[in-house]
Amino acid sequence: MKLSTGRRILFANVPADGHFNPLTSLAAHLREEGYEIAWYSSELYEGKIRQLGIRFFPFREALDINAQNIDSLLPDRSKKKGKISQLNFDMQEFFIKRGPEYYRDLKAVYAEFPFDLLIADCGFMGIPYVREKMQVPVLTIGIVPLIETSKQLPPMGLGMTPSSTRLGKLLHRFLRFLVLDYLFRPSFRLMHALMDEHGIQHGNQYLFDMCIAKSDLYLQSGTPGFEYDRPDLSEQIRYIGPVLPLKNWKNREPWYDSRLSSYERVVLITQGTFEKDSSKLLEPAIDALKESNCLVVVTTGGFGREALIRKYSAPNIIIENFIPFDEVLPYTDVYISNGGYGGVLLAIQNGVPMVVAGIHEGKSEINARVDYFGLGINLKTERPKPGKIRAAVEKILNQDSYRQRVKEMSREFMQYKPQALTALYVRELLLKNSLTINHKNNQHEKKSNSTAAAGSDYRI
Q1: Cα separations in angstroms, 301 against 104, 269, 416
Q2: How far lies 101's CA from each of 97, 125, 257, 342, 378, in Å?
Q3: Cα separations (Å) of 376 from 326, 329, 344, 396?
Q4: In 164-229, where do the E strands start and end?
Q5: pLDDT tens digit sequence for 1-31
Q6: Using alpha carbons only, what angle is made at residue 17 by residues 153 and 248, rounded to the nearest 5 degrees?
Q7: φ and ψ at residue 94, rounded to 5 degrees
C-alpha cells in the first residue's frame, strides 16, 4: 500500500502584525513547495493573504481584537496600571478567552478545508484545542523570545536577565513562585477552567509552557546565540533562525530617499504598529536628534503622521507611515525601537546596533536580551527622555563594540535558512502523522479480519 502524506496546511495567527507578518514568508515558501495552503485570521490580513494566492478563512465566532479596535473593544485596558496588572489583562482578553472561540471556528473551517497540519504563532490559543480535540498535529512558530519556563531563569514577562550568583538564582526561584504561582494565577486559572470544560488535560501548566507542550514541534525564531542558556529545553523545540516577513510582495513600490546617501549618520526610529501614542518614543527620539548631523528616519505605523510632520519640518527628518525596513536598514547606523521582535531580528541581520525602550506587550523580554548580549542599550522605560536617548545613540556611535557584537550575531543568523528548515520539519511531521494513521488503520483492518475469520469458524 502506498503511503500518502497530507498536503493541506492551515495557517492561523493572533490578530497582530508581529504575529502575522513573520508567517508570510513560511506560507509563501510552503505554497511554492506544492502544499495546499489556507489561512484563518483577522479580516485585517485578508488582502495580504489573498495576494499570496492563499485561501482565506475569517474569524467568525472569535472576537477580532487588534490594534485598530482594541481601545473600543477593551476600554478597561487603558485603566490597568503596572506591568503585572496589564499582563494579566492582556493574557486573559487577548489570548486565553479566544481559545474556545478559535476552536469553534476551526471546526467549521475543517469541514470545508480538512487540514492535515496547523501552523500557528505561539500566542494562538487554539493550539491545545486543535491538537487534543481535533487530533490534528500542530507546528508552532515562536515569534517572540523563547517563552518556556526554566529552573535556571527568572520568570517570563519581567524583563530580567540570568544570574550567575547563588543569591541571584535564589531570587529568581522566589520570583518564579511569586509571579507564576501567585501574581499570574488569575490568568492561569481561567485557562485551566476553559480547558477543563473541553476535557483537555493541562497538568496545571503555565500559559507560557502550554503552547509548547501542546505542539508536536515548536520552531523558535532566532538562534541559540540570541537566547539565554537553559539546561531544561523541551525536546520539541528547534531553532530555525530569524523568521522574517516576506520581502517580495506584488506591487510593493521600492522605497528610497536621496538623503540616505547625503548624511554621514542615519538613525531609524519606530514604535511598531501596535502603539499609537507617539509621545512615548517617537517624539522624544526626534527631539533628541532633530538638531544633530544625523538623518532621522521615522515610521509611525500608520498613526499620527500628519501631526508629526507639522511639528517636525527640519530637512534631516523623514516621517512616513510605513517603510520597508529591509530597504532602509542597510543605510542605518542606529535603530531606535520600542522592541518589536521582528524589527530587532531584522536589525541584527543587517548588523545595526540598537537603542530600545519598551516594557509592555512582551517588549521588556526582547529589550533585556538586546542589552544582555551587547547588541544595544536598553533604556528600560516606556517613556524615555530625549537626553537619555541622545546619550545612548552617541555611546553606540562612539563605541565600536556594539556594532561588532551585532555583526557577530548577524553571522550566526546567516547560518540558518528558516524557510527551508520549516519545510523540512513540515515533511517530517506529516510523514510521522501519516505513519501513525496508517498503523492505526492497519491495526483496525487486522482486527476486523480477525473478527470476520472467527465468525466464519463459528458458523462452520
Answers
A1: 32, 11, 29
A2: 8, 9, 45, 27, 37
A3: 19, 15, 10, 7
A4: 217-221
A5: 344 467 999 999 999 999 999 999 999 999 9
A6: 115
A7: -90, -25
